[in-house]
Amino acid sequence: MMARRLYSLLWPLATPLIRHYLRRRARRAPAYLEHWDERFGRNLPQGGGDVIWLHAVSVGETRAALPLVRALQQRYPQARFVITQMTPTGRATAEQLYPQAEVRYLPYDNARVMRRFVAALRPRCVLLMETELWPNLIDACHRAAVPAFLVNARLSEKSLRGYRRIARLITPALGQLRAVAAQSADDAARLAALGAPAPLVCGNTKYDFTPPAAQLVLGGQLRERLGGRPLLLCASTRDGEEALILDAWQAAACGDAVLLLVPRHPERFATVAALVEERGLTLQRRSDNMPLRSDTRVWLGDSMGELFAYYAAADVAFIGGSLLDFGAQNLIEAASCGVPVLLGPSTYNFAEASALALQAGAALTVADAAQLVATALALLHDAPRRAAMGEAGLAFCARHRGASERIVALLAQHLS
Fold this sequence. Notes:
By secondary structure, the chain is of the alpha/beta class. The chain has helices at 2-26, 36-39, 59-64, 66-75, 88-97, 111-121, 135-143, 157-164, 167-175, 185-194, 213-225, 241-251, 269-278, 307-313, 332-336, 351-360, 369-380, 383-399, 403-415; strands spanning 51-55, 80-85, 102-105, 125-129, 148-153, 179-182, 200-201, 231-237, 258-263, 283-285, 298-300, 316-319, 341-343, 363-365. 48% of the residues lie in helices and 15% in strands. It starts with a helix and ends with a helix.
């Protein structure tokens, strides 16, 4: 209790720093200045009706929630959904995926503001995606008798070590949750060690997300722009990775192959374009909406919401965030499109999925950027192996579906 009181006292003191941070981020991503009133609790949601509130911090969690929301809509057809995020890209993704829901920012975890938010919304329950542990949010729900659930929950060893340093704050918050639906047995064990109440292993909703048909059609159109040239996609790359990949690409004998770079964060599009041009590599942008020129060596995926189309267009896909110590982005999306997957050494955010994909033959690991490019080029010249890896990826995804229905069944036990 004392730890949460201290935590709550720090939020009003931190508010000027948060405002400074948002203004600084807005220099590269102006959307950080939009809906400012929501972030600080001055524009509260409207309650009324049967409200299910789901919080997903950013793009990955927002996409992962889609099959769960669809399953909930079938179970509770009269429910009204409120979806909250913390990032502009997450909010834009939610507005695209959930046109019938109310989409807004979650206020920062100020105790007074969070109590007002919960009182205004009056939800039937709140679902926190993956690792969204906000102590004052959870406490406000507990005080208002609103059941709070942690769903599609994951906790890496690295995160567990960090949370243990603030266990006096986090463990009481976990104890106020009504139930926890974990992605894997390892996640459940780590969450239980931190104090979560009897986590139940339900699987990962990301397996339930199927590639949108419109994105697959767009992928075919993008592939036509290649003019038959082989394509290596480096998807959701993080700061520092593009430079390593570009150096390795420049040093290799790539023939007529094309490198498609899709940075994880849109505010880095210009930075990555500059990295390409500094190396003298011929660059073309997806946003120019033109077929690839014969001399183009690097294609920059500077668009939002088209990752599935990029996977559908690619011959081989490397998953960003795994080359440097970021823990990797979502490899399941690539596998669900039947494209061979390459992973770097850092996969702690998707440890189980990575291990299962490797075991299934859907993915290969690479130690560094040079090996990444060499392995990709070898695959680009080996159509039978690419086909076998792609089929293995489709089968791997199909085997692990069903998490969304299991989570809804768990929620129904408590909400009835």
